[in-house]
Amino acid sequence: MSNKKDVSFSSGRYDAMKIKKIISLKNMVLATSAVLSMPALAVINNSETIIDNGAAVTVPGSQSSPWTLPGALYVGMSGTGTLTVNSGAVVSSGTDNTADTSGSVLGYDSGSNGTVIVDGGTWYDGVDAANNSLTSGTTAVGGSGTGNLQIKNGGKVALVFLNIGQNGSGNGTVTVDGAGSQLLATATSTSGITVGTNGTGVLNITNGGSAIGNVLTYIGLDSNATGTVNVSGAGSTFTVADGIIVGANGTGTMNIADGGKVTSGGGSIAGGSGSNPAGGTGTVHIDGSGSLWDIGNSILSIGSAGTGNGTLIVSNQGTLTAGRSVDVNAANGRVVIGGLPGSAPVAAGILNTPTLNLLNSNSSLILNHSDTSGNYIFSPVINGSGNVSSLNGTTVFNTVNTYTGTTTIDGGTVVVGDATHPGAVLNGASAGDVTVSANGTLSGTGMVNGMVVNTGRVAAFNTLAGNNTAANSNLTLEGGMTNGGVIDLAGSTPGNTLTVGKTYIGNNGTIVLNTWLGGDSSPTDKVILDNAQASGTTNLLIKHAGGNGAQTRNGILLVDAQNGSTTAADAFTLSPSSDGYRQGKGTIAAGAYDYRLARGGNGGNAQSWYLTSLLNTPAGKSDPAAKSDPTGATYPGQPGATGGQRALRAETGSYIDNIRAANTLFSMTLHDRLGETQYLDDLSGGKEKATSLWLRNIGGHNRSDSGNGQIATQANRYVMQLGGDLADWSSDGQDRYLFGVMGGYANQHSNSVSNVSGYNSKGTLSGYSAGVYGTWYANDALKQGLYVDSWALYNWFNNSVTGEGLPTENYKSDGFTASVETGYTHKTGEYQTLNGMTNEVFIQPQAQLTWMGVTANRHTEQNGTVVESTGDNNLQTRLGVRAFIKGRSKLDENTQRVFEPFVEANWIYNTSAYGVNMDGVNSQVAGTRNIGELKAGVEGKMTNQTTFWLNVAQQIGGKGYSDTQGMLGIKHSF
C-alpha cells in the first residue's frame, strides 16, 4: 500500500499481517482508540510517526526485522499515546538524515501525555544497532507535555541526545529498571543526557539497571528547570565519560542509594553552565553501604565563583571519591556528613578525597552523624577560609588542617588527633573562634588554633567513652581559651595535660583534675599555661585518684605557668564538688591532712597554682608541725621547711576521742560501782543482805591534744550504769563472795579544733554495755583486810564524726573490757569528836589492771580516706591509796545514818595511746601514758537498806591532757 498522503487508522484493532504490502506513507497517524499490532514490520519512508489521541501501538517480538521509522516518532502529540516494544522487538526511528531528524518526542504539546515502554525490546532513536549516531536529533521525554520512558526486563534504548523535561511545561520521567536494562546516549559533543532541561525531569536507575553517557550530563540545566536522578540498588549504575553537573542553573538533585554507583569523568554541584556560570541549586546525596559517586582523578566543584547553592551529603557508608579534591566555591556550599541540619543524625558516609578546600568564607563542612564510637575518621585535609560545624557524632581529625574559618561544636565530639596522631592540627594559625556549645565536646591529643570559646566540654582523649585504656596525653589550645563550661582531664589515671597559649579567661568554668593526694611529686592532671595570661574565675574540681594524704613542701602542681605566663590572684579556686571538699572553707580533706589551693604554693613558682597541705605561718610564729614525727619518719621540707605548717585534719581528734571514750566510759573501780563495800541491815538483826540494786550516774569533761599538738579536743560525757547482786556466800564463815550483773548506757560529744587551719570537727558516741562482776572479801566481820574485785563487759557503740564543711561519717565500734582489782583495808586508828562521837580512820592501798579491747570498724570516708583505730588492747594499770573516816555526827547518833568522807590518789599508766590511722598517717592522743588522779567524796548509809556515794575526780596528764568527773551512786538492799 502506497500513498503520498497522510494515512489514518480509525478506532479499532489493526493487524499488519493482514496488510499484504509494505506501507509507504508520508505520515502515519493512529486515531483515537486505535490499537496497532505489528508482528511483521512496516517501513514508513520519509515520514513522521505519530501515536496520539489514545492510540496504543504494541510491537511484539515475533517480527523478523526491525520496525524502521525514517523520521521522528511522536508519542502523545497533543493527546495521549503509548508505544510498547516487547521482548525481542526492535524499533528504529530517525534513521534517515533526509527525513525529519529533529528527534523523537514523548508528550509533545502542553497537556499531552506520551509513554514508551521498552519491555525487553530495543529502541534505537537516531542511532543504529552498532550504537553509531545516524542523526543529530534529540530525544525529548516530556517536550511541553508529559513524557514517560520505561526501560525494563532487559530492554535497551540507544539515542543521541536526551532531554528529560525539555521545555518549561514539560515533565518527563525515564526509568531504567532491572538487570540488563540499559539507556545509552551516544552523543560525542555538548551534553548527552540532560535531566530537567527547562522543565521537570526525573531519571530513575533501579534494581541493576544502567545508563551511559559519553559527554556532559546536566541535572537541572536552565534557571527554571528541576532535575532529579535516582540511582538505587546493587548493580544499578550511571556512567558518564565526561562530567555530571547537578544544579547547573536550575535545581538539580542526584540521589545514590542502597548500593547504586555513579561514575563520571568529573563533577560539579551548582556549577553553572556554558556562558552562565552563576550556578543554581544542586544536591547530591550518597547513602548506604556500597553507594558510590566516583569522579576519578578529578575535582568535585561545589558552586562556581562564589555563587550557587550546592550540597553534598554522604551518609550510612555512602562514598564520594574524588582523586584530586573537593572544592567548595559557593557561599552557600556545604559538605554534610550524615544528616542535614535540622534532621535526625544518621550514620556517617565517606569523603574519599585527599583535600577538602572550603574556598568561600561562608562554605562549610557539617558533621551530623550517629557514630559515637570514635572510629569515624575524617581523612581529607581541610584548607581554605570556610567553616566546620559539628552537630552530632564523634569525628576524629588526624591530619594537619589549615582552614581559617570558624569551628562550631554545637553537638557531638570533635577529636583532634587520636592516640597515635598527636601531631594532628584542627585548623590554621589564623583561624577563627572554636566554639564549643553546651552539648559539644572538644578532645584529642593534637593542637587547636583559634580562640576556644567553651560553654560545653573540653576533654582529655582517655576520658571519652571507649578510650579509658588509652595513655595519658596533652591537648594544646594554641589560640587561647575562654572557659565557661567544663575542662575534663580526669581519665582513668592522673597525668593528662591541657596546654593553653596566649590567653586563658575563666568565665565561671570548671577544670576537672584527677590527683593523687600525697606529697609534692604526686601524679596529677595539669593545666599548662604557655606564655599565656590567666584571668577571670575558674573552679578546679579535684577527684581523689588515690593517695593517703601527705605533708607537702611547695605542693602538688595543678596549674603550671611557663614561659612568662601570669595568673591573676583569684584566677583559680577549689570547686565545692571536689572529693573531700569542706563546704564554706575551700579546702580538701584527704587522709589525715587538709589541702588548700595556693598561688605560688610554698616557695614555688609565684604564678603557678598548687594543692598544698602546708599553710602559711604568720610572721613571728613557729611551726608546731615541724617537730619530729613520733614514728621517726621525715618528710620533704621537714625539718627546715620554710613558709608554713602542715595541716592535719581536725577530724583526727574526733576519731581519736571516740575510740578513747569507747574504751573508758564504762571503766570503774570497786568503790565506783558499790560505794562502801559493806553495811549491816540492822532491821534484820545484823544479817548482811547481798541481794541489792544499784545505780550510778557520771558526768565528765575531758581535754586532750593530738596530731603533734595541732588538734585540741574537748569532750563532755554522761554515763548511767545499773546493776545488782544476785548471790553471796562464804567459804569459811569469815570471808564473803558476791556475784552480780550490770548494764549501762553512755554518750559523749566532742569538739576538735585545728590550731593550724582553724577548722573544727564534732564527734559523737553513744552505746551500751552489759556484763558481770564478782567480789571477794577476806574478813567480812571486821570489814578489813584483803579484797579482790573483778568485772567484764561487752560494749557496743554508734559513732559519728562531722568535719567542718564535710558530710557526717558514721561507723560502729565494739569489744570487751575487763578488770581485776585488789586492795587492803587497814584501820589506822580512831578518835573522839568534841561531841563525844567515835570516828574510825582507815587507809586502803589499791592496785588495778584493766584490759581495754574495744575497737572501731575499719571505715572508708565518703572522700575515700580509710580510717582505722589504733591503741587496741591497751593495758591500764592503776596504783593508788584511799584514806577515809567512818563515823557519824551527834545529829545522827540515834539514826541509821553513817558517813565516810574520803580522799584518794592514783597513778594511772597506759601501755598504748589511743589514736587513728588515716590513709597510713598515724595520730595519737598526747599525754596519756602517765596520768595522776585525785578523787574526793563521801559515801554513806541513809538507812539500813539504802546507801549512796558522791565524789569528784580530777586527772592530769602530759601535754595538756585533763579529765574532770563527778559521780553520784545509790544502792538499795532487799
UniProtKB/TrEMBL annotation:
Supply the Pfam families for this chain. Answer: AC_1, Autotransporter
Please report the stretch or stretches of sequence annotated as the Autotransporter domain.
686-974
| Family annotation (CDD domains) | PL2_Passenger_AT (cd01344)
Which residue ranges does UniProt annotate as crossing the membrane? none
Instruction: Name a single GO cellular component.
Output: outer membrane
Q: Which InterPro entries match?
A: AC_1, Autotransporte_beta, Autotransporte_beta_dom_sf, Autotransporter_pectin_lyase_C, Bact_Autotransporter_VF, OM_autotransptr_brl_dom, Pectin_lyase_fold/virulence, T5SS_PEPC_rpt
Which SMART domains does the UniProt entry name for this protein? Autotransporter (SM00869)
What is the name of the protein in this document? Transporter
The organism's taxonomy opens as: Bacteria, Pseudomonadati, Pseudomonadota, Gammaproteobacteria, Enterobacterales
This protein's UniProt keywords: Signal
